Backbone:
């Protein structure tokens, strides 16, 4: 039998502004997630990327469902995770939509190849991980994407690009 208790202020939900500030103190690797096919390609910058398992190789990515990438992802059923190097902050900014850059225009100024899933792989990224969408778990404003890893490329041993306290950082 479950007994209902009154929540006191110590058990109330977190203040959204305080939670956002706390998460800004979590150092994250910066990745560009590419989605879509044909003229409908787009993508987004993410720090919420993590491995799920090695066998089978799967990866987790968090995506805001109000993003244009959500619809493109559902149609394509595939995506790529491109882990950025320290000298690729301009690409991270474009895919974050800084300056109003959207859709296909996010790909301009960089070299891309297509993976086996059709997703775009960034030339010169620390690593590019081509994935098919295995599942999308919808919770609140976001979806947790589970990607089945297909081919992986490791191109360089450069320093990674990080994100901390609201800014891109070089990690050496």
Residues:
């Amino acid at each position: 039998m479950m007994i209902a208790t009154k929540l006191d202020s110590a058990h109330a939900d977190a203040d959204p502004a305080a939670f956002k500030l706390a998460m800004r103190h979590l150092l994250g690797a910066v990745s560009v997630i590419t989605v879509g096919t044909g003229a409908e390609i787009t993508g987004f910058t993410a720090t919420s990327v993590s491995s799920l398992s090695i066998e089978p190789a799967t990866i987790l990515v968090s995506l805001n469902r109000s993003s244009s990438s959500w619809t493109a992802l559902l149609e394509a059923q595939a995506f790529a995770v491109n882990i950025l190097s320290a000298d690729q902050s301009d690409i991270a900014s474009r895919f974050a939509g800084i300056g109003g850059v959207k859709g296909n225009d996010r790909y301009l100024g960089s070299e891309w190849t297509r993976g086996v899933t059709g997703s775009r792989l960034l030339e010169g990224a620390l690593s590019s991980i081509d994935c098919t969408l295995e599942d999308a778990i919808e919770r609140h404003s976001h979806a947790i994407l589970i990607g089945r890893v297909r081919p992986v490329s490791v191109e360089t041993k450069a320093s990674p690009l990080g994100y901390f306290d609201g800014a891109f950082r070089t990690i050496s």
